[in-house]
Write a structure and sequence with these properties.
5% of the residues lie in helices and 18% in strands. α1 (34-38) links the parallel β1 and β2 (49-53). A four-stranded mixed sheet has the order 1-2-3-4, with no helix packed on it. The protein is mainly beta. It is elongated and about 60 Å long.
Length: 108
């Protein structure tokens, strides 16, 4: 059965875990991509799709893109196909200032 999921980008940073290899006896889920896992679409099953909608921010454009795992996928290392637009970064660092080290301990 084909299913569709829409994920909203999380507010906080998360850590993605590597995908586990599955049996090659039949269709298998597409491989995880850390970038898409953080946004809520880590494991896409064969024949399924997941749409990610990024939130508008002063420095990031609002866009959406869809990940689709082929219905008969037998390659556990295949990354899901992507259609749509990735968010664009609109800002850059203007300047960085550092202060003097206030911890006199060595290595701190």
């Amino acid at each position: 059965a084909n299913t569709s999921t829409t994920a909203k980008a999380p507010e906080a940073n998360t850590t993605a875990k590597p995908a586990m290899l599955q049996s090659l006896a039949g269709p298998v889920q597409c491989a995880d991509c850390p970038f898409t896992t953080v946004l809520g679409c880590g494991k896409v099953q064969p024949g399924d799709k997941c749409t990610i909608v990024t939130a508008q921010d002063d420095c990031i454009t609002k866009n959406s893109f869809t990940l689709t795992c082929p219905k008969g996928n037998t390659n556990p290392n295949k990354i899901a196909d992507m259609t749509g637009n990735l968010p664009e970064v609109l800002c850059k660092t203007c300047s960085v200032q550092t202060s003097a080290d206030t911890d006199a301990r060595k290595g701190f």
